[in-house]
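# step 3/5: fold
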Amino acid sequence: MSEDDGRGVAKGDGRKARGRKGGKKHKKKGQRPGLIRRVVRSVLLLGVVGVVSLAAVVAYYASKLPPMADWTVPQRAANVRILAEDGSLITNRGDSSGQSLTLDEMPPYLPEAVIAIEDRRFYWHFGIDPIGLARAAITDIASGGVVQGGSTLTQQLAKNLFLKPDRTFERKVQEVILAVWLEARLSKKQIIELYLNRVYLGAGAYGVDAAAHRYFGKSARNVNLAEAATLAALLKAPTNYSPILHPQASEARAQQVLSAMHDAGYIGDREATLALSTEVKPVRDVAGGSGRYVADWVMDQLPDYIGSIDQDIIVDTSIDLRLQGAAQRAVSDTLSEDGAKFGASQAALVAIDPDGAVKALVGGRDYATSPFNRAVDGKRQPGSSFKPFVYLTALENGLVPETVRVDQPISINGWKPQNSSKNYKGPVTLLTALSQSLNTVSAELTAEVGPSAVAATARRLGITSPLMATPSIALGTSEVTPLEMTAAFVPFSNGGRGIIPHVIDRIMTSNGDTLYERAGSGPGQVIDPMYVGMMNAMLRETINSGTGRKAALPGWDAAGKTGTSQDFRDAWFIGYTRVLTAGVWFGNDDDKPTKKASGSNLPAIAWNRFMTDALNGVQTAELPGNYRYGDGGAVAGLPVPPASLGADGRPLVLTQDPIGDALAQAEDDGWLGDEPTPPGDVGGQQQPKRKGFFQRLFGG
C-alpha cells in the first residue's frame, strides 16, 4: 500500500511536474503575442491621442484665424515710383516698393538662387518640409540653441501675407495651417512668384525688383547671376548681408548661394566660376540717403492731389539729382569737418529755382539714423535771416538803402535789444545796418512801420508759419521752416514774383493715364521791381563786405542774409543768384546751444559748397533790378544834403529824429504798454518754452 501510495505520489508528482513544466511552455507561447498586442494597442492609442491632441491644437489656433471663406491672398499694395526731373529713379514707395514681375520676366537663375539657399525641396513638399524640420531640430539640439530654421518658402510667404512677425507657438501653428492652404490653392509657380514680389530685402525694399533698383540701380529683369546670388543672400539677414553696409559679409554669403545652386544642379562649374569672379558693384544712389527725405515729402502730399492710392503710380518731380547730390555732400562734408568744433549735429538744405520748383532738399545729416525732415517740418527761430522782411517793409514805407538810422543803445519800454558784438556804430545807412546785421536798427525800423506790417510782408512773400506781430519779430523769434524761408527769398531773385514751392510736377498711372499735372504760375507780383533792386543792392553787400563773406561766389552776382538765434541755437544762411535760391540751417535737434555756430560760419560755408557745385557750368546772370547805391535821394524824391556823406563819399539821407519817430510809431501801433518786456539778449519777446516729447504726447 505504501508502495502504491509511493507510486501514486510519485506518479502524481510526475504529472504535476510535467503539468507545471508543460504549463509554463504553453504560457510562454501565448504570452508573447499578448505583449506585442498590448504594445501595439498602446502605441496606437498614443498615436490617436497625439493626432487628436494635434488636431485640437490646430483647430484651436485655426479658430483664431478669419473664416476660411474669407481667406484670400492680399492684393499687392500700390507702388509709388518717384522720379527725378530727368526720369531717373529716386526711389519706390509703398508697402511693396517695386514692380510686380512674373517669373517669365525674371532671369531663371534669380528664383533658382532663392530656392537653392532657402528651400531646396520646394517643388516636392506640400508646404511643410518634414526633412528640413528634422534637420533643423537636430542642428538646434546639437548647438544648444536656435541656429537653423525649418520654414519653407511657403511658410515664409504665409507669414509675410497674413501674420505678424511674432515668435510664438500660436503664430507658428497658424503659419503651417496657412502654408498648407496656400499649397492647396496655388501652384508652385504662383507661390514662388508671390514670394519674390513680397519678400523684404532690406533698405526699405520689398520684392526683388525694388531691391535690384535699390542695390544695383537696375530692374530685377536685368540682374546677372552674381547679383541674383547677392539678392538671395539678403534673405537670411537683410541688414547683416547688405552689399552696401557689409560688402564682405554679403560676398561671403553670395558665394554660399552659388555653391548651393551648383549642388542643386542649377548651374555648372563654368557658370559658378564666372559668377564667383564677377565683381558686384552696389550703387550708393540718392534713394539710399537724402532722396528719402524727398520721397517722404512727396508721399505726404499725394493724398491732397489724388486721394487714396489704390493703383501703381508714377510721380515726376522737379528734383535735379546732380543738385541733390551736391546738397547732400555740402551738408555731410560741413558737418564732418566743422560740426563737432561748433557743436552742431544736424543740418538742412533747400534749393529752389526762380519759378518755385524745388531742385534739391536735404532734411538731415543721415536719413538712416534720423528720417525726421528738418527742411520741411523743422520749425526753428530764423534770427537775423528774417530781417529782409523788416527792411523791405521799411522801403515800401518810403525809406531807401541810403537812409540813415543811428546804431546805439536803446530802450523801448524796458526792452533793450543789443548787437551781437555789444558794440555800436552810430549813424549808419540801412544798407550798412542790414549787411552788418545790426539789431538796434532792425528794432527801430520795426517800431516805425509796426510789427504787424512786417508780419504781413513776410506772409506775402511766402512765410506760412504763425508769426507773432510783436517787437521780437524784428530779430526773427517766430519759428519757421527752412523750406518756407527759402521760398520767401525767391522773389528777390526773380524780379518780385511770388512762388509756391513745389516738388510734384505730374502724377500718372503705370498705364500712362495722367492723374495730375502742375499748372499755374503762383501768386504773381508780390514786390515792386524798384524795391527788388533796392533789396538786392543791400543783400548783395551782405556777401561782399558783411556777415556773409564766406558765402561769396567768385564770378557770380549773389546776395543773401545770415541768421543766428538766441544762445547760438540756430544758424542760418539764405542766399540766391538769378538762377537758384538756397537756404541752409545748422543746429541740434534737442535745441541745445551750439558752440557759437552762426550764420556767418557753418551755413555760409555749406551754402558756398553747394552753390559752387550747383552753378558749375551754368551761364552767369546778374540779379534783377538796376538800383545803384547812392541813388536813394533821387528815387525817394528827397533832397540830399551835401554834408551828409558817408566815409565812402556817397550821400546819406538823414531823418530828423529816428528813435523818437520809432517810439511814436510804436505807441500809435499799440504795442508799447503793458506787454511783457522781451529779454535784452534776444531783442524780442520771450518765446513759449519748447515742449518735450511727453508734454506734446499727453498735453501740459
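# step 4/5: annotate
The CA atoms of residues 408 and 423 lie 8 Å apart.
# step 5/5: archive (pending)
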